[in-house]
Write a structure and sequence with these properties.
Elements: H1 3-7, H2 18-31, E1 38-46, E2 57-67, E3 72-81, E4 86-97, E5 126-130, H3 135-144, E6 149-154, H4 160-163, E7 168-172, H5 182-189, E8 194-199, H6 215-239, E9 245-250, H7 264-284, E10 289-296, H8 309-317, H9 327-338, E11 349-352
Helix pairs in contact: 3-9, 6-7
């Protein structure tokens, strides 16, 4: 828990105490599932991976047994770190209800999107940036807002320094769950047209091979890579103006170019995205819309922010240019692909490998 002490351990930075994660599970059963009439009877917990601080987690519960006669049951709860989609706690809780009735879940209402306003002059084009709350997404948001009006799609609140940018408006949405309805999006745009999409969102990077991975984990990666990319492309196709538009998908060098077995589901999902990019290119061309994928090697942000200095140096030593890929490298390529000069580039999978074969 002490930052200075943690730097000298194998963890390299602070981690969240397991008891806090059990507390999150307790809050889930007491407030949502089964609800306010629950009494905790027994707790069993294991922690398969460290949970680094600060972080965002998703706490999910499933009632695995229920006896109506005694109003007793058991719930299995998982705590998953969102940036890497790594389970950090698996907790089984036995419970009873002190009032008769069936367990019920309370779902929080979805956050309403904030309407974008024309900023910096009416000649500025509108770009939708997904994953704006992530490490790379935040960097791209700041860069894009210098020349575009950015609709920043994010699952979590953006930091104040991004919200203060005059060319940026926040849109709270979970792309994995939302329908991306065209009429609802048209209401957000108002009388504006959508020029571009920079798709940087991703539902984490689960560790492990495919044989050991849960089916829903693999399906989530593939569906997000292919289906979400297609849905966003439809949105741009229907919302672009007569001058056409641009779609830039942020993939990874570990997708189709250099897949990694310890990130198999992630590599497979990103490869599905790249396949969608190639197949969408001729269809989008009918509206003068280009689509390309940018595939950076390891960058020291986002899901890689907890890698230690030694590990970063090892990674950099494998790159002929002698350094890691930086967000500015990705931002510069994205800026070019959004520019008029890139109007004939489409359907390409562009690696940022620093000279790696």
């Amino acid at each position: 828990m002490d930052a200075e002490y943690a730097r000298g351990t194998a963890y390299a930075s602070r981690i969240v105490h397991g008891a806090f994660q059990v507390g999150l599970a307790s809050a889930l059963i007491g407030m949502h599932l089964p609800g306010r009439h629950v009494l905790l009877a027994n707790v069993s917990a294991r922690f398969p991976a460290p949970l680094y601080f600060p972080c965002t987690v998703r706490v999910r519960g499933e009632i695995t047994s229920w006896q109506a006669e005694t109003h007793a049951g058991q719930i299995k709860i998982s705590v998953v770190e969102q940036s890497r989609q790594v389970p950090t706690a698996e907790i089984v809780i036995s419970f009873t209800l002190h009032e008769p009735g069936r367990p019920s879940a309370t779902l929080a209402p979805a956050a309403a999107p904030r309407l974008p306003e024309a900023a910096g002059g009416s000649d500025r084009k509108v770009v939708l940036l997904t994953g704006a709350g992530g490490g790379l997404g935040s960097e791209l948001a700041a860069s894009l807002a210098q020349q575009f009006d950015v609709l920043a799609a994010t699952r979590q609140p953006l930091p104040d320094h991004l919200l203060a940018l005059p060319g940026l408006r926040e849109w709270r949405i979970d792309l994995a769950e939302a329908s991306l309805d065209r009429e609802a999006f048209a209401a957000i745009l108002g009388d504006r047209r959508l020029f571009g999409i920079v798709h940087a969102a991703w539902p984490g990077a689960p560790l492990g091979g495919l044989l050991q991975a849960q089916n829903d984990v693999v399906e989530r990666q593939i569906l997000f890579g292919a289906t979400t990319t297609i849905r966003l492309a439809r949105l741009l196709f229907e919302s672009a103006g007569p001058e056409g538009g641009r779609f830039v998908a942020i993939s990874s060098i570990v997708a189709s170019q250099k897949p990694v077995i310890t990130l198999s589901a992630y590599s497979l999902g990103k490869a599905a995205m790249e396949g969608a990019v190639k197949l969408l290119a001729p269809e989008l061309a009918r509206r003068n819309i280009t689509i390309n994928a940018v595939c950076p090697s390891l960058i020291p942000t986002g899901m890689n922010k907890h890698k230690g200095e030694q590990q970063r140096k090892i990674e950099a030593s494998r790159i002929p240019l002698g350094r890691l890929c930086e967000p500015r490298d990705i931002g510069s390529l994205v800026d070019y692909l959004l520019s008029p000069e890139a109007g004939f580039i489409s359907g390409q999978i562009i690696g940022l490998s620093g000279g790696q074969l």
